[in-house]
Amino acid sequence: MTYPATRELAKRIAAVHAPDVGEAARAGARNAALDTLGVILAGRGDACARLARRLAVSEGGAPVARLIGAEERTSASWAAFVNGTAGHALDYDDVDFVMLGHPSVTLVPALIALAEERGIGGAKVLEAYTLGFELLHVLGRAVNPRHYRRGFHATATLGSVGVAGACAYLLGLNEEQTMNALSLGASGSAGLVSNFGTMTKPFHAGQSARAGLVAAKLAEEGFTAAEDTLETGFTAAMAAEEIGPTAHEFADWESAVAPWGQPWDIEEGVCVKIHPCCAMTHPGIDAMLDLVTSEDVRVDDVAALGARASTMTLKVLRYKEATTGLEGKFSMPFCIASALVDRKVGIRQFEEDSVARPEIAALQKRVAFELDEKMAREDPETEAAEVWIKLKDGRELTRFFARARGHVENPLTELELREKFLECAASLTEEKALAAWDAWWRLDAAEDVAFLTAMLAVSVREPSPA
Amino acid sequence: MTYPATRELAKRIAAVHAPDVGEAARAGARNAALDTLGVILAGRGDACARLARRLAVSEGGAPVARLIGAEERTSASWAAFVNGTAGHALDYDDVDFVMLGHPSVTLVPALIALAEERGIGGAKVLEAYTLGFELLHVLGRAVNPRHYRRGFHATATLGSVGVAGACAYLLGLNEEQTMNALSLGASGSAGLVSNFGTMTKPFHAGQSARAGLVAAKLAEEGFTAAEDTLETGFTAAMAAEEIGPTAHEFADWESAVAPWGQPWDIEEGVCVKIHPCCAMTHPGIDAMLDLVTSEDVRVDDVAALGARASTMTLKVLRYKEATTGLEGKFSMPFCIASALVDRKVGIRQFEEDSVARPEIAALQKRVAFELDEKMAREDPETEAAEVWIKLKDGRELTRFFARARGHVENPLTELELREKFLECAASLTEEKALAAWDAWWRLDAAEDVAFLTAMLAVSVREPSPA
Question: Rounded CA gap, A166 and A125, in Å?
Fold first, then answer.
């Protein structure tokens, strides 16, 4: 390919016109936007979302973009931050195994806020989302899995660059400005996996939504940044050891960029979550749910139980047992125990009184969570998992899931997507939630995003955090 | 030491009381604050500072903290961002060779803005600065030089954590909150050396001032983050290869924390710049200035010239020749050429019409800038430089500077500091500038920081950027 890669990507983004984004990509982008808006509504009452909103309200700002699920409007960058944080609060938003992170919870809050501020219609939002998703895949192919192994949360790091590129398109920036936005976004990228299981994980989504949006706005005004940042500084810092003119050799940018737009990667869809917890727990949860329901296993019948997974899964799921809901989202033993006891791992299971049940506390200690040597040899990063139960009657049952329900290889139906949205939008009346679903489903034709976000305002005041 | 190191540092910060910070530390912090305020005033008209201000004004915010050198006030986090960016615009702010970056341009804007918002007096600002500087040294000892070699701009990355800790002290946070602020600040840290020579380098300072301040404010409200982030995720991502429970072994936190407060590192002072360009150019500039003035060398007498330096200096100074002032700040040939032609390397030399002079364009092409093998073997990171000139009469002259003027080992006098401040504060009348110097010099006794920042307002409207 032509170097610098950063400029090449900017050129491609700036060259896109509406007809280049076909129906399949628009549908994928719309589904992702709807799922994200649902989980923002569901997460808005979470403590980290309330604290992010309080900070934004106290800092103040021109009231041009709505805090989803709230009466207030604020500036675009604060709205992107608050909505991004709320959307990731429950770890219920979609996930992607090329970027190794969460694509929509960074792209959607930033694009919606910016479209609202500038009066940009829904069609362009869907195009921008399509490009942002494509860009996240290029970045993921270039730097993963080394980037993730190093301890970076790609939602924040790659997200910041992806949002910068998507917002650059939404603003109609030229190649030079887009290049500056990408490079500036790369300098604003951060986030550490060690903060998983705390409020700082959702903060990463908000931070990256905001950083990318700010990068694009500054680039629009004429702010400058280097034309080779992605393949030199960014690659070296995030996935290699050295910097300098030959640093592009540390990442295969040629292969990373080659599939650009042929077809758009979002046409395959994105991995939607049906459990509000780390994606690495999902195959284990689905396997356990399948096992306990198909075999009708009762807790009292169980003599021993456990799960086996690959290297990355064991690293990311750092909590052997969970004492809070946030920790539970990154604990395979907790998720397996909840699946066995409740036969469901939904929003309710991660609420504090649910986590505190003695039955759950006792059972999660009994879950053996171990490395599967064969899986680790074949693919250290795979999220596949096998669960097993030894029954008191001597029988031993196992189930293996390579891909969770909702994965692009195992997608949800439109009806299942809508059911999840309605569950997430419980703070709206059912009538309002259905009307919002229908209106947002026609996003491609919407001239006014502000009208759509107004449908997601919630007039109930929640208590302030303790 | 006791692990987690993150919690140990939080404990130390939360345990500090005013009497623990003595006169020497307060004087060091005051000098650093004054130098920083001066360079913010000098940089406020620079294009990147104007663009940052425009974005902040358009986003809006509660008017509680002043944009230095401007009429407007805005929210604390936007003020920290704008003032941080302005302060680093000219690369004229102080520098530190333990953090391998710029300490005051992140700490001072954040602390001043937050003190203004909360009505906190000057004495506490000086204490918070002292702790922030100490913390930056701990971080620098733990992760450098690998961190810098990897392509990170420590001003942004370590700065974000340093500011979080300093702001946590200013807000009077307890140990738990301070730990959360440090860990959250680490997740908000980024910045890439590849963006040197563009507006995005000053952006790093503003970004880190803002990120650290936001981290401390969220921690104050109860936001959570992991208690081991600095020695696991942060260390692994920034300076080592793996994550996991043993990752603290990749950095010697014991030695990094040991010198904490014995005495405070700021008591030795900080490296103040007398040239507004990358610190790695300074020994070369000082050597060339010394050579041309002591030997009275004229441009026409020169047959050939050059400079020799160590590995890191050659990497950081990435421009062989400069076509803009920003590139000139990271070009040894440009700086050497300016020193020879003008016998001064000040603000004026980096202005566009000055850079565009044919004499400078021609001369910088003639400067040989090469690796000194001996220096590289002994210390790859040293900023030391040797310059040489071959005269047409056959004589060959050389000068070696290990430490630039203004370095802590070669410090400026109070009078020299004040001269630099007055040069930087040219947008104020001389009377107002002197009054501001005197008032800020007594910062330790000031009950009202807002009164002091008001003295730095400038009522002249500048033209909007082209």
Answer: 9
